[in-house]
Automatic annotation (TrEMBL):
This is Xaa-Pro aminopeptidase. Keywords: Aminopeptidase, Hydrolase, Protease, Signal. Pfam families: Peptidase_M24. InterPro entries: Creatinase/aminopeptidase-like, Pept_M24, Peptidase_M24B. One of its GO terms (molecular function) is aminopeptidase activity. CDD domains: APP_MetAP. The keyword Hydrolase applies. It comes from the Bacteria. The lineage of its organism: Bacteria, Pseudomonadati, Pseudomonadota, Alphaproteobacteria, Sphingomonadales. The keyword Protease applies. Residues 193-425 form the Peptidase M24 domain. Residues 1-26 form the signal peptide.
Length: 442
């Protein structure tokens, strides 16, 4: 038998490299889906058993309904809920894995990441719980942490009606459990958070450059919307909506992300965060727009920035696993108060004494949200300050310094610093290269 050679399609040579560069259909979407599935598996295999047992929760019931997902639903597998659905986790043995049951939850995507042992009807909830006889049943009602407060009034009423008085007497808030579950992380989660950080800083540092800014023409709003367009192109979300972009000096602070035309001599700051997979960042960068003949920011601005870097090192020195976030805040506040020329201040309300610089520390949890659910070295999270710092917690190291810049007259300007990293056995490690300089725009 003989074969005739196949004829080659006569494609122009210039097209061939373009075809080679085309991604496979759905390649990035599938890659991200696989990573999310692995994160879910790690979360339930590695994190959930330890946090349920530490918090003495024998069963955790997470309720959702169509149009009202619990804040934890996506991390627990997502899926479609037609009316009411429950993710139920039972510690049946006290060792090994936690039994996982999905009630009234399904869909193609849910089924392609098989992480549940059982799939049953929500109508079986009471019989199911009675058979396992848990002593403490955690539900998502909370006093402070929003991600632990997903149980609506009507869903709570439905749960009470379904379980009956004996089991209802065993219901307890799962606020600390949810905080621990969301704030401790596997290696895959740390990798995803690091990638979110790289997206965040790369887009932000490009935005604060001549790639985007033409002094005398570009507005702060133009910069903000350019950044939002990059999120759209990369298939990313935003931690806080439109980036906050404003002018720190030399004049009074400009409107946020508005119509201020960026001029030579402006000191710009940006506060924003990126959402990638399940993970959110919260970071800041500063840039100075050079005047003709300048090659650096004014000396007073640089001194202020260097002083803020010194304070950041004070924060890093007190972060250790095993201490409460509140004790870490007290320790750094003590160091600030004992440093000549520094005083503890109030956010955006500096003292009138130009001889001292005001410091505000707000180093909060991050990662599962822009302002996260875990331990926070920040007095605006009072409950979370009582939680211990643990290895793999994500933190945003945030501070504000209010200090005088002599070149800009008798007032204090704000120098903000913020970057993200991970608590480790060694203390704290950055998840990506942090802010180490004032960026320059020509």
């Amino acid at each position: 038998m003989s074969f005739k050679p196949l004829r080659r399609l006569a494609l122009p040579l210039a097209i061939l490299p373009l075809l080679a560069a085309l991604p496979a259909q759905g390649q990035e979407a599938k890659r991200r889906w696989d990573q999310m599935c692995q994160i879910r598996k790690d979360k339930l295999d590695l994190i959930l058993p330890e946090v349920m047992r530490e918090n003495r929760i024998d069963m955790w019931i997470v309720a959702s309904r169509e149009g009202h997902d619990d804040p934890n639903a996506a991390l627990l597998g997502g899926g479609y809920v037609g009316d009411i659905g429950y993710y139920v986790f039972a510690d049946r043995t006290g060792s090994g894995r936690i039994e996982r049951t999905a009630m009234g939850i399904g869909g193609a995507g849910f089924d392609q990441c098989p992480i549940y042992d059982l799939k049953v009807s929500p109508a079986e909830l009471r019989k199911f719980v009675e058979a396992r006889d848990p002593k403490r049943i955690g539900i998502n009602v909370a006093s402070e942490i929003g991600t632990a407060d997903g149980l609506s009034h009507s869903l709570h009423a439905k749960l009470v009606e379904t379980l009956g008085p004996v089991l209802v007497g065993r219901l307890v808030p799962a606020e600390k459990l949810v905080s621990d579950f969301r704030a401790r992380h596997s290696v895959n989660e740390i990798a995803a958070f690091t990638k979110a950080g790289e997206y965040s800083r790369t887009i932000l540092e490009r935005a604060l450059s001549n790639e985007v800014i033409v002094p005398g023409h570009t507005t702060t709003g133009d910069v903000a919307w350019w950044m939002m367009e990059q999120l759209h192109k990369e298939g990313l979300g935003s931690s806080f909506g439109l980036p906050s972009i404003y002018i720190l000096g030399p004049g009074e602070r400009g409107p946020v992300s508005g119509d201020h035309v960026i001029q030579p001599g402006d000191l710009i700051t940006v506060d924003w965060g990126v959402n990638y997979l399940f993970y959110y960042t919260d970071m800041k960068r500063m840039a100075y727009v050079l005047k003709p003949g300048e090659n650096a920011a004014p000396a007073g601005v640089q001194r202020a920035y260097d002083k803020a870097q010194d304070i950041r090192r004070m924060i890093l020195d007190v972060i250790r696993p095993g201490v409460t976030a509140g004790d870490a805040l007290a320790a750094v506040n003590k160091r600030v108060a004992e440093t000549p020329g520094l005083v503890l201040g109030r956010y955006d309300d500096p003292s009138k004494d130009m001889k001292v610089s005001d410091v505000v520390i707000g180093s909060h949890s991050v990662g599962d949200w822009g302002h996260g659910s875990g331990p926070s070295i920040a007095d605006f999270n009072p409950l979370r300050m009582t939680y211990q710092l643990r290895p793999t917690n994500f933190l945003s190291i945030e501070l504000f310094l209010y200090t005088q810049v002599p070149e800009w007259g008798p007032r204090k300007i704000k120098i903000p610093l913020e970057d993200n990293g991970v608590v480790t056995d060694r203390g704290f490690e950055w998840a990506y290269p942090p802010n180490s300089r004032i960026l320059l725009v020509k």
